[in-house]
Amino acid sequence: MEISVAYKMCQQVMEHHSKSFSKAFQLLPLEKRQAVWAIYAFCRTVDDIVDEGTNPVTELNDFKTNFEQFRNGTIDESDYLWIALNDTFSKFDFDIQPFLDMVKGQEMDLYKSRYNTMEELEQYAYYVASTVGLMLLPILSPENKEQLRPSAISLGLAMQITNILRDIGEDLDRDRIYIPKDLRDKHNYTDTMLANKEVNPAFVRMCEELSNIAEQNYEKGLANIELYPQFSRLPVTLSAYYYKAILTSIRQNNYDVFGKRAYVTTQQKQHILKMVAKA
Asked: Which segments of the protein form a coiled coil according to its record (predicted)?
């Protein structure tokens, strides 16, 4: 398979699953854009194995074996993911640990479905989301990747909390509850209320607290945006603003995350792009 075809398939994965990220990062130079596609496809493949695989434990073990072989220089020449990732690894100086940590985080969903404290949730968010930012730093800001590490971790936390708020109902249907028990207890939102998918004042207060934590981390994630090269400042800022707009949508739906899907319209994205480009 030609490398250009492999990258095209990665691009299609990203465009299918995340129009927001695809739109934000399409502003990058081609070589960097292709690398982002490959990283996204890697992460999405693991996520789909865990959430949609017919035998996720076996499939994830097979993926980890393939990744180990990839690291040792052996790739499946018929698999677009490893072809694209191999080319990307030849062009950028990646730290392998975030890749391993991301796989570990996805694997957590196979045996852990409840979280007791915010600290536990933040650790999970690091593994499944902050690691993605760390993977992208060698592409987006190779010179300042160490200085930007805390910002990338914060931005990942903000985005993962946003995901959790948006997907409370879907996760509950999978028997997963990411909102920490201590936060539910603090707001007197009981397990019975959650099982019944009640949107009451306690639920709204609880979600609002999580939303505020997310917003604080969006601010931290963009606090050092000047450390990014000019070519990547706009894509990083846009990705944060697009995701942050999901929080606005959730609030506009009065936190009815069980009955309404929070999303950002194309028109809203265009408005955000104009606003950020002028800043």
From this structure: none
Task: Reply yes or no on whether the pLDDT at 278 is more than 80.
Answer: no
pLDDT tens digits for 166-202? Answer: 999 999 999 999 999 999 999 999 999 999 999 999 9
Sign of CA dihedral 81, 84, 86, 89: negative
DSSP category for residue 230:
H
CA 118 to CA 210: how far, in whole Å? 10
Closest C-alpha among 135, 138, 133, 160 to residue 222: 133
Average confidence (pLDDT) over 141-168: 96
Kindly report the CATH number that applies to the domain delimited by 95-279: 1.10.600.10
In 3D space, the residue among 273, 240, 276 whose CA is nearest the CA of residue 129 turns out to be 240
Dist CA 273 CA 89 (whole Å): 30
Q: Where are the domains of the chain?
A: 1-92, 95-279
Instruction: Specify the DSSP element, H or E, that contains 78.
Output: none
CB-side neighbour CA atoms (13 Å) of 107: 14
Q: Are 187 and 160 a contacting pair, CB within 8 Å?
A: no
